[in-house]
Design goal:
The protein is built from five helices and four strands, in the order ααββααββα. With 134 residues, the protein is α+β, with helices and mostly antiparallel strands. The protein has a four-stranded antiparallel sheet. The longest helix has 10 residues.
């Protein structure tokens, strides 16, 4: 990772990292795109994603991250359920069947992207009331 950072600085370029390692993302990224089952579900600056996650999947990912302080016998959080079958994807939010924060609109079509700020976007019915404001 240090070598990648050095090369990035030398060529004044960018790096696209694809990873499940939240520690790497927090250390290396300026802007984060969170995907679930092949769809972008949330995107924003690294600060927005780590300090103010909005999509239930992003929140679940962060809750399931192991830490050095989790040695008191507490179980690590596990996102319930399973990823949908990629051959027969639903026409509603792909995360709905695993989501612990569903709202009325979740039974509808796949949610469109909602702007929470100029840099923070989320595809989730929980924020549709914000859509009219932005």
């Amino acid at each position: 990772l240090d070598l990648l950072q050095d090369i990035k600085k030398k060529i004044d370029g960018s790096i696209l990292l694809i990873t499940h390692d939240l520690g790497v993302i927090a250390e290396m990224a300026d802007y984060v795109v969170v995907m679930y089952a092949g769809k972008v579900i949330e995107k924003g600056t690294v600060y927005e994603i780590f300090q103010d996650p909005r999509h239930p999947y992003t929140i679940g990912l962060q809750k399931s991250k192991p830490t050095m302080t989790l040695d008191d016998g507490t179980e690590l959080y596990n996102i319930p359920g399973n990823v949908p079958n990629p051959i027969n994807m639903p026409n509603y939010c792909y995360f709905k069947d695993r989501c612990e924060m569903c709202v009325e609109g979740c039974d509808g079509a796949y949610p469109c992207e909602v702007s929470l700020s100029p840099t923070h976007k989320v595809s989730c019915y929980r924020y549709y009331d914000k859509k009219e404001e932005n």
